[in-house]
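Running this now, will post back.
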Amino acid sequence: MNRAYAVVIRRMERNYSADCPDVRGCIATGRTVDETLRHMRSALAMHLRGLREDGQSAPRAVTQLATLVRRNGADQIYTVLRVAA
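Update: finished.
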């Protein structure tokens, strides 16, 4: 089953950082936005695989991009990543 998770990318001093509000503790960094997205997709897949191996279900993807923009402002990058859950 594939899930589509909202992801927030933030510009840091020397790189980019990404997190997924629906998957607490799952973060990634990269030198560019594209690299950060690749790392985030891998981090999400590994996190979800670990949950499955531990007999837990994947978190529901409930956060909407519009909600994130309203809450965090438009100075960040918002996207959705599809991963196998």
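DSSP finds two helices and four strands in the chain. More later if anyone needs it.
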